[in-house]
Amino acid sequence: MKQRYSHIAISLHWIMAIVVLTTWTIAQIAGGMPVSPDRILAISWHKWLGLTVLWLVFVRLFWRATHPAPELAVRMPAWQERIMQLTHLAFYLLMIAIPILGWLMSSAKGYTVNYFGLFELPDLVLKDKATGSLLKQIHEILANILIGLVALHVLAALKHHFWDKDGLLKRMSFFK
Amino acid sequence: MAYLNECHFLNKPTGHLKMQILRLSFLKLNGIKGLAYIALALFSAHALAVEFNAIDIAKSKINFTSKLMGSTINGSFDQFGGVVGFNPDNPEKAKADIWIALASFNAGGDELRDEAQGKEWFNSKVFPRAQFVSETIKKLSANKLEIKGKLTIKNKTLPLTMVADYQAQGKQMIFNGGFELMRLNFDLGAAAWADTKSVANEVPVKVHLVLNPK
After folding, report:
1. How many CB pairs under 8 A join A and B?
2. Distance between CA atoms of residues A35 and B107, nearest Å
3. Would you say residue B40 has pLDDT above 80?
């Protein structure tokens, strides 16, 4: 029985973990910077990485749909398994919703989004200050929820590894 | 064509009386032909000799674009005004003296607008206005002019050439002109902002002026 995700799925998981955390960290740093070329650069990278999450999540969903997750070899209470499934579902939904809200927010604030300076993306809504602030709030709240769930996800993984010592982490690892 | 020039006085209040005299003399001299000339002269005086010298601010626009880390950003100046004089009969004699209130800079969000008013950009507390004064105007083709003049921003005066076309629309005259401003030539964006990778040096500006007749 297959006990490990495919190599592509494992790669996507870890790449996205790094990209998501970097994107969030940049936003925290840029938020405290005065308006300056450095801040514009930071926000640009935030947007570029956020858009990368957006297209990667679709690659990942496609991969997941065509390559089912390995069965759980580990026994855990049903409520824990349910929370695990809900957390994973929330990850996918948030990784789609947050970048799109960021894009909407940028349009509403009058800033066209581009991708690594290669091409510009269309403005999704007309410039409107109130809409911009509202979208910013939702974008930030959802991003913080995502980071909260990431923390839960990491803590749960560490609990399985160090407390239960059930080898659950091997499912998402290249190593034995 | 001499008739056309003579008929310029029709714009003046005394025109009616003089027109009557003129018509009489024409009738005596040329009969039907004279009437035709008067009709032509009246029409021409109206269509051609009108001087446009008031800016319809509500309909006019000054827009610009910039590039911010690879993204186009659209902006405008919403407060401007000035003195213009334009006679389509004699476009090369046209004059323009236009000011722009730099505090009316409008692009991006609040933080960007505040930054634009600061010392490193417009420093609008010290230099509240930009000004363009035309000097020479050359007709390039029908309804197209090359306007040369001086643009002053932040106390720096530099020559500026803009190409504009014009078109009558109803009773108004519509001008559409454009030029590319190099922001660094006017010290717009000092210190770290001088980096053209974050904010491009080239700023395409579009001027849409709607003029009312006298």
Report:
1. 50
2. 14
3. no
Mean pLDDT value of segment B24-53: 58
Domain check: are B33 and B133 in the same one? Answer: no
Query: What three-state secondary structure class fits B8?
Result: helix
**B154-193 pLDDT, tens digit each:** 999 999 999 999 999 999 999 999 999 999 999 999 999 9
Gap from B112 CA to chain A (nearest CA, Å) = 7
User: What is the domain range of residue B110?
Assistant: 52-213
Cβ contact, residue pair A117, B108, below 8 Å: no
ipTM > 0.85 (yes/no)? no
Separation of alpha carbons B72 and A5, rounded Å = 42
The pLDDT score that the predictor gives to residue B30 is 56
- Domain range A7-172, its CATH number among 1.20.950, 1.10.287, 2.10.25, 1.10.20: 1.20.950
The residue among A151, A146, A170 whose CA lies nearest residue A27 is: A146
Q: How far from each other are the two terminal CA atoms of chain A, in whole angstroms?
A: 16
Q: What is the rounded distance in angstroms from the CA atom of residue B125 to the CA atom of residue B146?
A: 33
Global confidence as pTM:
0.81
Q: Do B193 and A40 touch (CB under 8 A)?
A: no
Binning pLDDT at 50, 70 and 90, where does residue B25 land? Answer: very low
Chain A neighbours among B 175-214 (CB < 8 Å)? Answer: 192-193, 195, 197-199
Choose among B69, B71, B74: nearest Cβ to A41: B69
Is residue B146's pLDDT more than 70? yes
Q: Which residues contact B206 (CB under 8 A, 6 or more apart)?
A: B61, B62, B63, B64, B176, B177, B178
Contact at 8 Å (CB) between B49 and B87? yes
Q: Residues B69-73: what's their mean pLDDT?
A: 93
Q: In chain A, which residues have their Cβ closer than 8 Å to the Cβ of B112?
A: 35
Specify whether the CB–CB gap between B214 and B182 falls below 8 A.
Answer: no
Residues B13 and B92 in one domain: no
What confidence category does residue A114 fall into, taking pLDDT thresholds of 50, 70 and 90? very high
Measure in Å the smallest separation between the Cα of A112 and chain B Cα atoms: 6
- Residues of chain A positioned with their CB less than 8 A from the CB of B193: 36-37
